[in-house]
Design goal:
Strand content: 5-15%
Strand order of the largest sheet: 1-2-5-4-3
Number of helices: 9
Radius of gyration: 20 Å
Order of helices and strands: HHHHHEHEHEHEEH
Low-confidence stretches: none
Distance between the termini: 44 Å
Mean pLDDT: 90
Length: 209
């Protein structure tokens, strides 16, 4: 990395750690803010950066045009994610009624459990891990909720090259990927899925246990 990119990277880390240097931020030029925002966007932490600065009453230091754009993106993400969690709640309730255990993966887990604010973590789809023996039943329940497979494949075909079924899609809803494992068979390593299930802990996400 260049010296300038390292400075921007280090400043971004300080802001995300909730330790922003007020005096340093006050010295940033519009170009510096542009670089900081672009760095945050490239690492998918732009909304977290905005939230950190806003909660410390430092968002007024961001140049007006940049602040307006970032704020708009933040609220758009919040709206999309709220809609995503509404869909997720319906899916989890349907699987819960049939006693199909679920481990929620990636963004939908991270946004609520780790970030603590669903507006802070951008998401494009819903990733759900179920046991392989529950895979077809879980798919049937998604079909019952109006989802259809992007590409019709059986488990044997999917298992040969992938770690999830073809995405389940529905108009005005995020795609859903049903996983039974975490890595494709072509990966140079394997993850102990049984150990993952044994170590899983209960959580409430989208108002569903």
């Amino acid at each position: 990395k260049s010296a300038m990119s390292r400075i921007t990277h280090n400043l971004l880390l300080r802001c995300l750690r909730d330790e922003p240097d007020d005096s340093r931020l006050e010295q940033l030029t519009p170009s510096d803010w542009h670089d900081l925002v672009q760095s945050a966007r490239s690492h998918a932490v732009l909304y977290l950066l905005y939230h950190r600065l806003k909660t410390r009453n430092l968002d007024h230091l961001i140049p007006t045009d940049t602040l307006k754009a970032v704020r708009t993106e933040y609220f758009e993400c919040a709206w999309r994610n709220n809609s995503l969690y509404n869909d997720l709640s319906k899916i989890l309730k349907a699987l819960h009624r049939e006693n199909i255990p679920v481990i929620l993966l990636k963004g939908a887990h991270l946004a609520q459990i780790v970030y603590g604010n669903i507006a802070l973590r951008p998401m494009g789809d819903i990733d759900i891990l179920v046991k392989k023996e529950d895979l077809l039943q879980a798919k049937e329940h998604l079909l019952g909720l109006g989802y259809t497979p992007f590409k019709e494949t059986d488990i044997a075909t999917a298992s040969a090259s992938c770690q999830h079924l073809s995405p389940m899609i529905k108009q005005d809803a995020p795609p859903v990927e049903l996983h039974w494992t975490l890595e494709a068979p072509t990966f140079p390593f394997t993850i102990d899925i049984e150990g993952l299930w044994q170590g899983a802990r209960s959580a409430s996400v989208a108002n569903v246990d």
